[in-house]
Amino acid sequence: MSIGNPNSRLEAFCDGVFAIALTLLIIDIKIPSTIEINNTTDLWLAIKHIIPSIFAFVLSFIIILITWVNHHNSFTLINKSSNTFIYANGFLLLTVVFIPFPTSLLGEHLLTDHASPAVILYTSIIAFQGLGWVLLSGASLKSNLAKNEKAISKIKINLRNGYVTFLTYSLLAILSYWIPLSIAIITTFTMIFWLIYGLKLKHE
């Protein structure tokens, strides 16, 4: 490991966790063995049957990708570590590795009349991910881990965005009880927005 980077082991561990979470997303996408396929039409109908699962996979892939990019950028703002920071980082990673479970539920039940629990759980984990950013950014500031004043300003922006994410998706999770499909659509558009926003950012 690089002597000049005290967080190199932590970053390597985190990258491994993100990679595993991304891999787990695809495992549940398969045509059920109970579906009988005797011709091309049957296969197309079977593929049509798993479209919600493919949608959930793509959405979760985007979420984890955005999280990884933000996580990578957050580590460029610090040059030290602390126990508080490491545990806060662990909580954030917990929200990442949990995503495959609600993704599977969302894919199976999104277009049914009992989709509420799946959407509630899905939006709740995003809310907890926002809380993870609050804890991680807060630990960076309290432990004085930032490289310089400019880094401190960026960490404060991450802290603010963490609060916004937590409050926004907590509200969406509550509303999912009544309008799950609408909330799933809103969640999709917000993630597309953050993806485009991230692509336009200039990182130094």
Characterise this structure.
The chain has one domain (8-200). It has helices at residues 8-27, 40-49, 51-75, 83-98, 100-109, 116-142, 149-175, 180-200. The protein contains eight helices and no strands. The protein has 204 residues and is mostly helical. The model has no long low-confidence stretch (mean pLDDT 94).
Write the layout of secondary structure elements.
Layout: H1 8-27, H2 40-49, H3 51-75, H4 83-98, H5 100-109, H6 116-142, H7 149-175, H8 180-200
Helix pairs in contact: 1-3, 1-4, 1-5, 3-5, 3-8, 4-6, 5-6, 6-7, 6-8
Considering the chains and any ligands shown, give keywords for the structure.
single chain, 204 residues, mainly alpha, 0% strand, elongated
Computed structural class: mainly alpha
The best one-word shape is elongated
Give the number of DSSP strands. Answer: 0
Helix content: over 70%
Order of helices and strands: HHHHHHHH
Average residue-wise pLDDT: 94
Report Rg. Answer: 19 Å
Rounded to the nearest angstrom, the distance between the terminal CA atoms is: 23 Å
Main β-sheet: number of strands, strand sense, barrel status? none
In a nutshell, what does this entry contain?
With 204 residues, the chain is mainly alpha-helical.
